[in-house]
Amino acid sequence: MKRITILSIDEDSAQFYKEQVTSIFKENIIVDYRNLEMVPILPVVNTDLILYTDPEIINLLIDKIQCNVSQLMMKRTIPKAILREINKIEPDSRVLVVNINEFMANETMALIYQLGKTDIFMEPYFPGKNLAEKDFDYIIHVAPEKYDFLGDIKAKDIVTGHRILDVSNVLDIVYILNIDESIAREIILNMMSVVPTCWYGVNYSMERKMISEAQLDYILNDLDSGVLILDKDNDINTLNKTFSKFIGVSEKDIAYKNFFEVFKDEENLIKLFEKGEVKEELTTVNGIECFVTIGDIEYSDVSYGKMILIKEYFEVVEMFNKSNKIVKSGYFSKYTFDNIIGNSSSMRRIVNEAKKFSKTDHPVLILGETGTGKELFAGAIHNDSPRKKGPFIAINCSTLSKTLLESELFGYEEGAFTGAKKGGKIGLFERASGGTLFLDEIGDLPMELQPRLLRALEEQSIMRVGGDKVVNINTRIIAATNRNIMEMVERGEFRRDLLYRLNVFELDIAPLRERPEDITCILSNLMSEKGISRKFSRGFEIFTRNYNWLGNARELKNLVSYLEVMTEKEIYFYSIPAYLKKREYFNEDCLKYLVLNLIHCLNQLKLSSGRRTLERVFSEVYFKISEVEIRNMVNELESLNFIEVSTGRAGNNITEMGVEFLVNERYLLNEEESEVAIKIKEEMDEKL
Ligand SMILES: Nc1ncnc2c1ncn2[C@@H]1O[C@H](COP(=O)(O)OP(=O)(O)OP(=O)(O)O)[C@@H](O)[C@H]1O
C-alpha cells in the first residue's frame, strides 16, 4: 500500500491533515506525519510522497528526510460553505485575515481574492504584527477556532477551520502515487462537490473531462454494438449496456477487473484477443453467434489499451436486409431490354449479344464503369430468359464482410455456430434456384470465398456453412464489376479459373464518352420520362460530347434534375452548372466556334470585339482562357474566312460565311449570354 508523510508545524494541524488525507483516499493509502512538537522527531524513511504545509517546515525538517521521494507543497483552499459566508461580507468592508505567520496570512488573503471576493479591503495579521488601525468590520480566523492573540480588536468573526486540500493537489497525489483510475475518479468527483478551486486550468480540464465522459457514455449506450474498453494492463475500463447484456453480467460486477479473469471461460474470445487486431470475426461468445472486432487504442504511437466490439450476427443481417444492402427487396428486376437506351453501334451490338445470352443458362460477366447500366443489363437478360418467372436476386459483394457474405450466399446448417437459427438458414444460391443470382461488384469478392463460388459454378451444387450435405441448385449467375478484372488476375487478386467460369459470355459496356451519340439520346429519354421538354442548343450538345461523364448515365440523371429547375425552353452551353465548365473538356475546334459565336454576338450588339474584350467575355460566359489562346483562335477563324480582322478599336467582324456557319450549326448565343457580354463591356468602358 502507498504511504504519504505529512510535515507540519504543530501537532494540531498535522493531525488535521492526516485525517483529511485519510478521509479523501480512505483505505487506499497509509498516512503518517511529523511536526516540530514531536519529541523525538523520527526520520522519514519509508514513504512514497512527502506533503508539507508551508515552505518553512521543509527547511526545518530537511535532515529528517532520509528517502528520495517526491515532495509536494499543499495547496489549500476553504470549504464551499465558508466561502459562501465570506461572499456575504458587504462590499467595501474592512477585513482582518488572521493566521499563525505572515506567509500563511498572506496566502489566505490571496486565496480569497482568487476565489472571487475582490470587493473588500483585507489586511493580513499574525502574532507580532503592529496594526496602525484597529477598526475592522470582520475578522477571518484561519484556524479551527478564534485566535486569542487579537487583544482589543473587535469585529464580526468568521472561523474558517483548517483549510482543506485543493482538488488540484489531490490530482497531483493521484498522479504521483499512480492511484487506480476508478478510485481516483470517485475521489475527485466527491471533492469537486465540496471544495472550491481557484485553479482555473484544473477546473476547466476537469469540466471538459466530465463532459467528454458524459458524451462518450451517451454514445456508447446508444450503440447497437457491445463495446468493452480495456486499459494497457487489460483491466476493464468501460463497457456499454449492450455489452453487459450480451455477456449477461452487470457492469458493476466486472468493471475494473482483469479481462482474462472475467472471460476465462470464453475460449473463443480469449483466442481472438491473443491474435491482437481482429476485424469482424464470426465466433461464439456466451453461446451467441457474433462478430468480434478487436483493436488497439493508440495515441502518439503508444498503446493505451484495447477496444472490443461485439455485434450479434442476426442483428447485422437484419440491419443489412432493412437497408437493402444484402438483397434488394422483391426478388425481381423491373428492367427489360426496352429500358436500355442508346443508338450507338456499340450499344446496339451489346444489346443484340445480351439478347442472345439471355436464351442460355450460362454465366454472364458484365464489365463497365459505374453507371453504365450493368444492373440494367443483368435484369433485362433475366427478364428475357426462360427463367423470367423465377427469382432475380441481386447481391453486392463489396458491402459485406467475408463471413457474412459466405453465410448469406451459401446458407448454414443448424448448429453451424452455437446460436444459429433452428433448421439452419437457406442461402441466396438456394433461394435464387430456378432464377438468376446477380453478383454485383464481383471484383470485391474476398479471395477466401472464390474457391467456394468456383465449386458452385462447376458442380451446380453447394454445401451450407457447417454442413456436409450437398445441395443441388439450379441458379444462373450473372456477375458484374467496374474493376479491371484481368489486371486483378495478373496481380493474383482474383482467381483465373473463376474468371474463366464467370465470363463464358462477356458484355463490355463502353463508357458514355466513347459513345457520345448515346448521350443526348439518354438525356432526352430521361427528360421525357420526367415529362420535361427542352431543345438542346448546339453549344450544349458540344459540351455533352466533350465532357468525360465519369459517372456515366447516373451523372446524366443528376444533370437532368438540375436542368429541370434551371432552364425553360432551350438548354444552352450557358445553362450547365459552373463546375462542369472546364477548359479541359473542350477541343480546339469547339473553342474556335465558341469564340466565333462571341464575335457575332458583340457585333450584333454593336460592341467592339477586340482580343481583350473577347478574353473577358469568354472567361465569364464559358471558362477561363488566356489572351494568347484567343489570338490563335482569331487567326484561325480569319484563315477560314469566318471573320475579318481590322486594326484599331473596331476589332473583329464576322463575315456572311461565319454567320451562315453559326446558323447552320445552331451555335448562336442565347439571351443570357448576350446580357453577360453587355455587362462586361459596360464595366470595361467605365474603366477606360
Ligand atoms: N443505356 C441506358 N439506358 C437507360 N438508362 C440507363 C442506361 N445505362 C444506365 N442507365 C441508368 O443509369 C442508372 C445506373 O445504372 P446501373 O445501376 O444499371 O449501373 P451500374 O453499371 O450497375 O452501376 P454501378 O457499377 O455503380 O452499380 C440506372 O438508373 C439506369 O437505369
Automatic annotation (TrEMBL):
<dbReference type="GO" id="GO:0006355">
    <property type="term" value="P:regulation of DNA-templated transcription"/>
</dbReference>
<dbReference type="GO" id="GO:0005524">
    <property type="term" value="F:ATP binding"/>
</dbReference>
<dbReference type="InterPro" id="IPR035965">
    <property type="entry name" value="PAS-like_dom_sf"/>
</dbReference>
<keyword id="KW-0067">ATP-binding</keyword>
<protein>
    <submittedName>
        <fullName>AAA family ATPase</fullName>
    </submittedName>
</protein>
<dbReference type="Pfam" id="PF00989">
    <property type="entry name" value="PAS"/>
</dbReference>
<feature type="domain" description="Sigma-54 factor interaction">
    <location>
        <begin position="340"/>
        <end position="565"/>
    </location>
</feature>
<dbReference type="InterPro" id="IPR003593">
    <property type="entry name" value="AAA+_ATPase"/>
</dbReference>
<dbReference type="InterPro" id="IPR000014">
    <property type="entry name" value="PAS"/>
</dbReference>
<dbReference type="InterPro" id="IPR002078">
    <property type="entry name" value="Sigma_54_int"/>
</dbReference>
<dbReference type="InterPro" id="IPR058031">
    <property type="entry name" value="AAA_lid_NorR"/>
</dbReference>
<dbReference type="InterPro" id="IPR025662">
    <property type="entry name" value="Sigma_54_int_dom_ATP-bd_1"/>
</dbReference>
<dbReference type="InterPro" id="IPR013767">
    <property type="entry name" value="PAS_fold"/>
</dbReference>
<dbReference type="InterPro" id="IPR027417">
    <property type="entry name" value="P-loop_NTPase"/>
</dbReference>
<dbReference type="InterPro" id="IPR036388">
    <property type="entry name" value="WH-like_DNA-bd_sf"/>
</dbReference>
<dbReference type="Pfam" id="PF25601">
    <property type="entry name" value="AAA_lid_14"/>
</dbReference>
<dbReference type="Pfam" id="PF00158">
    <property type="entry name" value="Sigma54_activat"/>
</dbReference>
<feature type="domain" description="PAS">
    <location>
        <begin position="212"/>
        <end position="267"/>
    </location>
</feature>
<keyword id="KW-0547">Nucleotide-binding</keyword>
<dbReference type="InterPro" id="IPR025943">
    <property type="entry name" value="Sigma_54_int_dom_ATP-bd_2"/>
</dbReference>
